[in-house]
Write a structure and sequence with these properties.
By secondary structure, the chain is of the alpha/beta class. The protein is built from 7 helices and 10 strands. The structure holds iron/sulfur cluster.
Length: 255
């Protein structure tokens, strides 16, 4: 499978998600490029167009809370009248959602619309964790029903070459921010670059420290921007999940 096309608006789907079932996607990022604090070598949307930790500097390129709410209202109303509400409304899309400078206000609007138009749906986020050290962002994340937070590796050299963080991102801050978050699921994408014994052992120590509710591990299932990147075997993924359960006492699932 090739790379995914960028999302062209603030709402997409519902899509059938391996983790969440029928999920309505929310893209609160630009529609013509990816805006992210990482430039992961495996990103399904290709290389990052705007590589930044400063969403404020790109405010004019982002949809407004009112535009996002209008699109979500229209989509949830249509799904309700079809008798097919989504199981999840999920912040995801063209980059890192918490970089939107009005993330807090958007969370407010989304929760209100969920309560009004799809009260059974849960509101989730897929985040790369780079802003979780910020208390205001953590407060917003804690208001959601489900937080799926990325931590692929912790060794600085692997972190730098694998996730390619922009200036200002620090893996130590990520770990301490995650420690202060309410419950969360840790999500990891393993490939040949971060699945060596040294890298997994260091990451596992952090899993023991963080004690997430669950760990979800994956490997590549489509093309990657780094063309020679190799997935890991199903057997290696299963070995890692068994170690997470045995050594950290945390439920782990390989997808
Ligand atoms: S954090 Fe997510 S959106 Fe950003 S580069 Fe990595 S995989 Fe892509």
């Amino acid at each position: 499978m090739g790379l995914l096309e960028l999302q062209s608006g603030p709402v997409y789907g519902p899509v059938s998600s391996r983790r969440l079932g029928r999920s309505l996607g929310l893209n609160i990022l630009p529609f013509d490029r990816k805006l992210c604090s990482f430039n992961c070598v495996y990103c399904q949307y290709g290389w990052t167009g705007t590589h930044t930790l400063d969403g404020r500097a790109h405010r004019a390129e982002l949809p407004t809370p009112a535009e996002i709410a209008a699109a979500l209202r229209e989509s949830l109303s249509r799904l309700a009248s079809d008798g097919a509400p989504p199981a999840y409304i999920t912040f995801s899309g063209n980059g890192e959602p918490t970089l939107h400078p009005e993330f807090d206000k958007i969370v407010d609007l989304v929760l209100k619309l969920r309560d009004e138009l799809a009260p059974e749906a849960r509101v989730a986020i897929l985040s790369n964790s780079t802003t979780v050290g910020d208390e205001a962002v953590r407060r917003s994340l804690d208001r959601l029903d489900v937080r799926i937070m990325k931590l692929d590796c912790v060794e600085p050299d692997v972190f730098t070459s694998y996730n390619r963080p922009c200036c200002g991102v620090d893996v130590g801050n990520i770990i301490e921010g995650l420690k202060k978050l309410r419950t969360f699921t840790l999500q990891v994408l393993f490939t040949e670059m971060n699945s060596g014994e040294k890298s997994v052992a260091g990451w596992l120590e952090v899993v023991k420290y963080l004690k997430p509710e669950e760990v979800q591990v994956y490997t590549l299932d489509r093309s990657a921007p780094l063309v020679d990147l190799k997935p890991v075997s199903k057997k290696r993924l299963e070995e890692i999940t068994l170690r997470v359960e045995a050594e950290a006492g945390v439920r782990a699932t390989a997808y």
